[in-house]
Write a structure and sequence with these properties.
Length: 407
Amino acid sequence: LKQHHEQASACSLGLGARCVPQQQQQEQAVQGFMQRQPRYRIRSSTVCAAAAVESSPAAAAALPKLSDLPLQAIINPQGFVSPDVVPGTSAAVFSVYDEQQKLQYIGFSKDLRASLRTVLGRRPDKAFYFKAVQMPVLDQEHMLALRQAWFDECGAPPSGNKLALERKAWQSAVDAGAISARAKPAAAADKARELQAAIKARGCVEEFTPDPDLMAEGQVDFLQSGDAVEQQAAAAASKAATVAANNGRPVRTATAVVDGQAKQFSVEYTGRYPTKGGFFMDVKLSFDHMDTKHRVIIGKSYYEPYGLLPEQPIEAALALILHLKMPRHRDGMLGTADFPVNYFTISEMEQWFPDDFGASFLHTTGKELVDGQDFFWRMNKIHDYGGKLEDPTTLGSAMTGSGMGGY
């Protein structure tokens, strides 16, 4: 088994011109990975990447473009790694993106779910989203050509394929960094806990159990979860769909301008509570394969004079959050420069971002927002009153020292 891991990790995949020509080396790498025996499935699915190969313009034209594929979250809203796998799929070429949706790595897989779990376990700080092309037949030449076409489309291989250290981080078990053999198990245990905490913080509810054999060697990789977790993931997704269909909560859609393009998002109103001056609402914002919860307080002045529903200005505020790419969830103490994105009032949004909110209000509602600056509370000094330090005669005895024994 150890020999298998060493061979899979040493797929060469662009590490240099040793032993065999590059084209043959790549095909052997893909073939060696794809033809693993079932007994190895309990281990983490090794993800291989290969160096560039030439592909004809005609073949490249028929290959799906990376930019045309849907971007999907590695961890779904129910907290599982559960990609939609087409029945009969034998292989896949997939790409991985970080939180900012920057391409990090392109790899091959025989089991897409296992490979996504593997990259998440190794790089929880980098593996947020993925795109994939699933194939009914394992065709090495086609997979290599597709990967090369994506390289060409992006202008160059991503860092996870191009840079040796990054490539190793994606393709190999995590080295805990211990020097002595005696310290390796303890170091690996610490590293495993660190990775597990990072994965859990991402909202993943699956168990990630480290491989004990690799732990003894000072390395961390996680065992695959098996069919039981896949069944749990399917059940959770089905339950969520049923609840969404039956809870009667209104779900509305709106658009936000993100990176110069109009993109749609949805808002589920999970709570709607009237107040003397308006409403406060609990909402779930769904955008870019991510759900976040927000409580928003809105006054009547933002909707009644315009003949709007109170939801419309709220959607304008949420659209601005997406437009400005604010972090959609904040924990702990907020700094003075941090907008309270999870609990805010519409008037706060206008005061923080007067011009941007006015533009978002117009884009979302079709109405021009009347400047509300005259209605906000301020503590401005507009009259001179009381004592002045520059005029001691206006100060009391406590300030001047008179009546205190001359001091």
